[in-house]
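Objective 1.3, modelling of assemblies. Example input:
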Amino acid sequence: MLEFNKVSFGYDENSKILDELSFSVRAGEFISIIGVSGSGKSTIFRLVTGLDKPLAGDITLEGNKNGARLGQVGYMPQQDLLLPWRTILENAFLPLEINGVDKQTAYKQIKPLLKEFGLEGTDDKYPSELSGGMKQRVAFLRAVLSGNPLLLLDEPFSALDAITKLSMQEWLLDQWQKRKSTILFITHDVDEALFLSDRIFLLKNKPVTAIEEISIPLRRERTRKDLHRPDMLELKERLLSTLRSEVTL
Amino acid sequence: MRNTASLLIVLVFLTLWEISARLIDKAFILPSPVQILVRLWELKDVLFLVHLPVTLLSIVIGLTFSIILGTAIAVWMSQNASVQRAIYPILIASQMVPVIALAPIFVLWLGYTIWSKVAVAVLITFFPITVNAFDGLSSGKRETEELFLTMGATKKDVFLKYSVPIALPHFFSGLKVAVTLSVIGAAIGEWLGAQAGLGYFSRRMMTQFDGAAVFAPIFVLTFVGILLFVCVAYIEKRMLNWRTKS
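Predicted structure (tokens):
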């Protein structure tokens, strides 16, 4: 699905953020990228979406080596970035509109999805009339409607309150299983990463030369209780202590 | 009503004016509001049918020019950083030129025609429109622009679907300032040299010591300004109705 092969990146040669980094993501996986602030998580996203180009190395997306990636990856930013002058329906329509889909066809496609995303009846509302959790769902819907099988979610729940966050996580797992998309998920919340992912990519050091891959020993059908299993607790402890050693105060 | 307080203040002001005018009792210097209204009624044909259309025409032409020119320059500056660096300082500096002092020169160049008034109106309304439109066009967030790009948007998509809508509230703020200034611009232009128009009429009455007839066209001009402002505010509210929801 996605492959980084010895990718290097930095805004100038002397201070690289990524140095010969390699990893690969299989179709249908849920992968969390975790690391302390400034560890290069967002840089990886900018490279995957095509907003930035690597200084060296190859990025292969769906067999397309170093091809144009803008418009090929669904991206959900940290803030919802919904357009305040557009209704929810019109906001969801945006990626389709940019791809030249006509309004009628698009609306027919969007309306059942709104219902499925728990946004029924919000069609003609403006973003300012919705709660934070709902706005994030619209933002996720917009990423899904880009039609791309790979979705990048950049700390999508970090601005939500703790309880909303929990239910949004469960909701996201549901949606992901239903749509069989591939998700790359940035977070700095260890519990969130453990609960959601198939694998966790742990970023450490700077520049990032390698990632530590951690497979989560849970089956896909999981509940929050599974996080209390001894092996999970041990894993969490290990992740936290690694991250802590990375923090420079 | 929302405007009750403002209305009351105006009424108190007009009452005080009426009282002091009656006490002073020199109508050629300080006519009372009632005298002005009476004179307005007596002069209604000549004011509304002869002079108002002339002034309105300068205002409308001036505003149209300003909107087209101002928006075009704003778009140009927002699309091209070197154009912005070159023009923006000049724009600001141009506002330091005392336009009113320049107005006689326009009369000199363009004569007593409507164009000298249009020129003055354009010169003072063009700035708020350009600067506000430009500020609006550049008020977009980089993150959102990048989100558009990840959706495969072209530069044109970003401009039309993001920069323009986000600029509209700023544009309307500029337009509200501009419509009020346009009335002043047209009146000044007429004052300095014209054969018709409310500004010209007011000045002519001054030479005849007809105080009430000096004020009557000023009342009309004020009313025109308020009306234009209300129109823009109404259009703004209709176009930006999302702002009232929350």
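Chain A touches chain B through 25 residues (CB under 8 Å).
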